[in-house]
Amino acid sequence: MHASNTIIEGNKFVSSDNQLVAARRPVRCDMADQVTSYIPLVEPASLEDLSQISNELKLGIAEHENKDYLEVVNGWLKSCDGLRLIEEETVPVLYPRIPGVKPARKDNPHNAWATKVAIKGEDSGLLAGKTVAIKDNVFVAGTPLTNGSKIWEGYTPEFDGTVVTRILQAGGTILGKSTCESQCFSGNSFTSASGPVLNPADRTRSAGGSSSGSAALVAAGEVDMAIGGDQGGSIRLPSSWCGCVGLKPTFGLVPVTGSLGMEPSVDHVGPMASNVTDVAKLLEVIAGYDGGRDHRQNPHVTIPKYSQLLKGDLTGVKLGYVKEGYEHATPGVKSAMADVITLMTNCGAVVEEVSIPLHLQCGPLFTIMLASFYRSMIECNVQPPGYNELYCVSAMQHFKQAFKSRAHDVSPTIKAVSLFGEYLKRKDGSMLVGRTMNCRSVLRRAYNDMLEKYDALIMPTIPFVAARLPPADLTPAEFVKQTLFNTGNTSPFNLSGHPALTINVGNVPPEDADPMKLDDATKLPVGLQIVCKHYEEVKLLDIAFGVEKIMAQGSKSSS
């Protein structure tokens, strides 16, 4: 299939001479086929197969009972073949496109593009004239998906993620897939199989992860907007370090249909842009119920016109400055926080220090959730069964085969998570994960109790500015440490599901800068994280819009 002469129409890949190149349709058979001969969906079990399973599970099945169980199991397996008679749901591809290409290094200065492609949406709509990058864990039909890992080489989705379709329906133009970290498992930007993503503010430093390419492209002005994914901070971390606006929406507000996640209870997809208005517009387009394809969604939520409700008046707005979120920040970050708080109070906001001790105790909760990530990502082939949602079977099949043949190609972090998850499963079963899930409701309540007293909670998104990219010769332990060192203020809100937004509130010199060479060019972005109650994105965006206005006014007065 050549990029120059292949166009996707509907769910078919059609060449320029109108010949069918490939198509994915449900396999059907006639009743006659069912009665005569066919290849079973699952190979029938043997006595040896079931005996081995019985011994491993210590089921205590007597030898004379084996044939009875074999009859039952093989009967069920034969019944599975009836699946051939039922047509699976398919998602139509609504907009034609030419499969993308990897840009040359000279055209990809920050290594932020995974694939370049041009897909034009409707002529009119809220996003008309806007260019968008899609994180490379989200499906774009006919365009290769890498998820930042060698293990996904050779996989091309056959349908668009829901957010992709909605962007195109709203008039947006998709320019390509943005580089993401290896299987989205890094808050740093050096783990992608295609190499490190460079921060536009300083190419020797990390762009943050795992939506590293999305943030770098927005910050560099190569796109107006981008889609990111967020399981522990992966929208907010790179947005903070690159100096743009990134929003992790309320859990379930934006459908994750047609994307690769980590674990269903922490997966989020959300908007990134250079300003609050564009973030609001993109959220307005991608949010909302997906017709039952994402089991985490509330079908009764009404999506407001976020972009039309931005006023930015901070008068009387009460903000709780979370002590546990800033007390370990560097002096430069603390200074930036003090400056923006002064500006906010001068505009009528009320800012008070508050204490939420549980905020600092989220480390063990997120660590134990790694075992659940392992089950979802590895054991269940990226999409755990049992949920009422749309399954991407081709992605599941690809990962199963690829992991079986080339597990050595996953990153050291994924290897460590696999070892941890498998060991914990064998020693503890799921008890620790169960206890962690119970603790998450306590954490959620701790934030909610404080949000009853305040309109929003604020803190630094990351308590230090962008770190230097690490050397290539890291040991596995050093590698893992470098991927998970900056999520302390972001991951708690993946666990609690609250909407959280980061916005740039100034640039400060890094702690490791040469004091003899300090100038504006050496300063790096600082992000302010704002958190509101569930489904209070209108308030969250309006507060952020107010911060954006006072920062712009401060910039004008200082110049």
Task: Explain what you see.
The chain is α+β, with helices and mostly antiparallel strands and 559 residues long. Helix content is 34%, strand content 15%. It is built from 16 helices and 16 strands. It has helices at residues 31-35, 47-57, 66-80, 162-169, 212-219, 236-242, 276-286, 323-326, 331-346, 362-379, 393-406, 412-428, 431-451, 476-483, 491-496, 537-558, and strands at 6-9, 12-15, 20-23, 113-120, 131-135, 173-178, 198-199, 202-206, 225-230, 245-248, 268-273, 318-322, 350-354, 456-460, 500-508, 524-531. The strands form three sheets. An eleven-stranded mixed sheet has the order 4-6-5-9-11-10-15-16-14-12-13, sandwiched between helices. It has a three-stranded antiparallel sheet with strand order 1-2-3, with no helix packed on it. Helix 7 (276-286) packs antiparallel against helix 16 and helix 10 (362-379) crosses helix 13 (431-451). The termini are far apart. Residues 1-6 and 12-36 have low confidence and may be disordered.
